[in-house]
């Protein structure tokens, strides 16, 4: 985004310089009289910003973080934890190759009781779909959980146990 500009001379005198569209380009013209009366050095200071405006953050009691990211070769899946309101939740959202959020609201992958806690989520891809994993302490050991997320960003079935703390070894369920 490109906007109007301000001409500022060495004395700090400021003059508004409106931007206009001319022959397929943005044009900024400083009037000849302004240039003649200016103390140098001087600068033309345009306002340049992002193409898309960023929303103002809203104060909340919810904490979000502990993110991980994977790519299926064409897009990305970002997973993160969100805690608040008595829940510890893991969410996922697809991001296009150009950085555009494809599922901006996110997809709820799993919810845990925060009293148990959980290690940060991880994510990997087989080139098409994704596997989200996280660990939760159970007694003195940790149980590893997983959830499948399709390349379209949908949860494919409920979360499942990959490794049970009470039964050491790999317990992969289809």
Tag the structure with descriptive keywords.
single chain; four-stranded antiparallel β-sheet; 1 helix; 48% strand; elongated
Provide an overview of this structure:
This protein is mainly beta. Helices cover 3% and strands 48% of the residues. The protein contains one helix and 13 strands; from the N terminus they run ββββαβββββββββ. The strands form four sheets. A four-stranded antiparallel β-sheet has the order 6-7-8-9, with no helix packed on it. The protein is elongated, with a radius of gyration of 26 Å. Residues 170-174 have low confidence and may be disordered.
Number of alpha- plus pi-helical segments: 1
Instruction: Record the strand order, biggest sheet.
Output: 6-7-8-9
Based on DSSP secondary structure assignment, what is the total number of beta strands?
13
What structural category do the secondary elements indicate? Answer: mainly beta
Shape: elongated
Average pLDDT score: 80
As a percent range, the share of strand residues is over 45%
As residue ranges, the low-confidence spans are 170-174
Distance between the termini: 49 Å
């Amino acid at each position: 985004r490109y906007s109007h500009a301000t001409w500022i001379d060495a004395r700090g005198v400021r003059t508004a310089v409106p931007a206009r569209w001319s022959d397929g380009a943005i044009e900024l013209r400083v009037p000849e009289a302004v240039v003649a009366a200016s103390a140098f050095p001087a600068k033309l200071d345009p306002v340049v910003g992002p193409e898309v405006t960023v929303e103002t953050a809203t104060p909340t009691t919810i904490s979000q973080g502990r993110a991980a990211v994977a790519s299926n070769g064409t897009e990305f899946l970002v997973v993160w934890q969100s805690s608040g309101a008595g829940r510890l939740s893991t969410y996922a959202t697809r991001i296009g190759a150009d950085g555009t959020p494809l599922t901006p609201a996110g997809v709820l992958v799993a919810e845990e009781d925060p009293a148990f806690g959980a290690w940060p989520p991880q994510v990997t891809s087989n080139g098409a779909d994704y596997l989200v994993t996280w660990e939760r302490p159970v007694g003195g050991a940790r149980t590893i959980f997983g959830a499948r997320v399709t390349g379209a960003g949908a949860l494919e079935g409920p979360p499942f146990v990959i490794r049970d703390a009470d039964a050491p070894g790999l317990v992969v369920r289809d």
